[in-house]
Amino acid sequence: MAAAPGVALANRLPAGGRLSFNVLRNGTPLGQYNVVFTGSRQALNVIIEANMLMKVGPVTVLDYRHHSEEQWSNGQFMGLSSRTVRDGVTESITVARTDNGIAITTAKGRGVAPSSANPLSHWNSAVLSGPLFNPQTGKMLTMTAVPQGRTTVALANGARVGATQWSLRGETAIDDWYDEAGVWAGLKGQLPDKSTMEYRRL
Fold it and tell me: Does a structural domain hold residue 130?
């Protein structure tokens, strides 16, 4: 397999090998987002689980479940598989590094992204400046990421921690925060209905 440049991981992985976030929509609890890290920096597996449920009275207006598993080797993205169920509709993709680039297979067929492409799964700020694809749909994104400097971000318990903010703009507007150790600390984004989604780290 042809070598491709890797990217540095965030300064360190979280203590305990896990990140958990409360997900809020316009300040109302919506669900949880969890990231579990196993292995080592040389052979890292990242498992992501998202569960979100929104009701208006007795009516379910959003039922979202996402599971993905990423593989990394010495800071280089190697592949992933993901399965997403949204309101009863299932979508699955597989992604693998090949000699010709990043092969992305969906129900619609197979495409190849540049070898430098990475999934936009947010936990690793080092990937934000390069080509990104959606780890749910496999679609390449046209988002631009710009560091905004030092600020603070609120955690789930209401405390604020120092963090570096990144703003991503393109198909949607998302801001990510990474604490002083480089660990993902929070997210704020706009949903299609113009409501605000927040991830607050536990």
Answer: yes
